[in-house]
Amino acid sequence: MRKFFSVALAAVTLCSLVSCSSKSEEPLVIWTSSKEFATYVEQFNATHTNAKAVLVYKEQPARALPPAKDEQTPDLIIGSWLKNSTTRKYFTPLDYLFQERQLNKSVFYRQLIDYGVINEKQYLVPISFNIPAIAYDSRQEANLPEGKSLTLNQIKECAKAFNTTDKSGNYTAMGFAPVWDTDFLYLVSKMQGASYREKGNSFSWNESAMDQTIRYLRAWTQDCNTDSTAEQNFQFKYLTMPEYKQVISGRTLFAYMTSDELFTLSPAQLEPLSFRWIQSNGMSSVEDSLITVGLYKHAKHSSQAELFLKWFFTTQTQVELIQKQEEMKLDTRVFGIASGFSSIAQVNEACYPTYYSQLLGKLPEASSLTLPNILPYRWTSLKQQVIIPYLQQRSDTTSQKEVDDLTRRIADWSKQFF
Question: Please, how many CA atoms are within 13 Å of residue 68, restricted to the half-sphere of its CB?
Answer without folding.
Answer: 3
